[in-house]
Amino acid sequence: MPAALLVMDFQAGFLGLFDDPGPVIGRATVALDAARSAARPVVHLRVAFPSDGAPVPAANRMFGQQFRGRMVEGSDDVAVPDALAPRPAEPVVTRRRTGPFVGSDLAPVLRGLGVDALVLTGVSTSGVVASTVCAAADEDLDLTVLSDAVDDPDRGLHDALVGGLFPQHAQVLTVVEHLAR
């Protein structure tokens, strides 16, 4: 089975942290369009909290502190750019933590698709992308990170992860390099 493309957290609440998210959105769109054209599986990951749900504990620095009261279902924060919006047949996995597998349906969705390999796009590199690389490697999934279709507001941290941590667990390719394979 071909690898599934994960399109992760391209949501207004996260994209608003970037000076110019246009380039990463554009490159992720190229990867998404290519996966769709090749009839490869596409899975969308997103963060959304129920409006009436219990707050995330403050000990969770990401969602309990930095994003407290944000990323609420139905709010502008969870909106996705039209170019990266899911199509009806594409699974959308909602999660409430940085990790993609914790408390979400990602593992059963991937099993249902027969997927044993992932290609990663998303924001931010130091959040969902890093967490997904580590967790998916522990799940023995074959990984590819599209280095120019992931991004982080902290350029130094992005470069350190893409050049240091990610190659320990994944192939790291540009979108053009990936599509040429």
Any overview of this molecule?
The structure is a single chain. The chain contains seven helices and six strands. By secondary structure, it is of the alpha/beta class. The chain has a six-stranded parallel β-sheet, sandwiched between helices. It comes from Actinomycetospora lemnae. Keywords: Hydrolase.
Short description:
Pfam families: Isochorismatase (PF00857). Keywords: Hydrolase. It contains seven helices and six strands, in the order βααβαβαβαβαβα.
Any low-confidence stretches, pLDDT <50, length ≥5?
none
CATH superfamily: Isochorismatase-like
What's the mean pLDDT score?
Answer: 91
Estimated structural class: alpha/beta
Order of secondary-structure elements: EHHEHEHEHEHEH
Strand order of the largest sheet: 3-2-1-4-5-6
Number of helices: 7
CATH topology: Rossmann fold
As a percent range, the share of helical residues equals 25-40%
Keywords:
single chain; 181 residues; alpha/beta; Rossmann fold; six-stranded parallel β-sheet; 6 strands; 35% helix; 19% strand
